[in-house]
UniProtKB/TrEMBL annotation:
Main location (coarse class): membrane
Transmembrane segments: 20-42, 54-75, 95-119
The protein's name: Tonoplast intrinsic protein
InterPro entries the UniProt entry points to: Aquaporin-like, Aquaporin_transptr, MIP, MIP_CS
Cellular localisation: Vacuole membrane
Keywords: Membrane, Repeat, Transmembrane, Transmembrane helix, Transport, Vacuole
Membrane association type: Multi-pass membrane protein
Length: 132
């Protein structure tokens, strides 16, 4: 049975809730930055490096470590969702309110977008593949 709880604005804007949103933002930013950054870095140091099995394993391990760090950072504060699909599942299951889930989504999407902009800045916007 689905239990949906909408929640109240007072609960969603409390200091504890704001702290949870910031934790989701930072954890998602770190996860996306490390994961996508590892793929970009591996692609820059090798010729078509992402196509070989060693490259795929290295990138997957970097994603796994980044996910572990992100969840470890946010687990005690917000639950360490880091993924809008996980947040949606918890909201539909009644473990968090719909309003809190929406704010988590916003924090997660802003965190991943900020990570992509930061990666574009750090890599100077150059493509990972070498072109002639």
């Amino acid at each position: 049975m689905v239990k949906l709880a909408f929640g109240s604005c007072g609960d969603s804007f409390s200091a504890t809730s704001i702290r949870a949103y910031v934790a989701e933002f930072i954890a998602t930013l770190l996860f996306v930055f490390a994961g996508v950054g590892s793929a970009i870095a591996y692609g820059k140091i090798t010729d078509d490096g992402a196509l070989d099995p060693v490259g795929l394993v290295a990138i997957a391990i970097a994603h796994a470590f980044a996910l572990f760090v992100g969840v470890a950072i946010a687990a005690n504060i917000s639950g360490g969702h880091l993924n809008p699909a996980v947040t949606f599942g918890l909201a539909v299951g009644g473990h968090i309110t719909i309003l809190t889930g929406i704010f988590y989504w916003v924090a997660q999407l802003l965190g991943s977008t900020a990570a992509c902009f930061l990666l574009k800045f750090v890599t100077h916007g150059r493509p990972s593949r070498r072109t002639v």
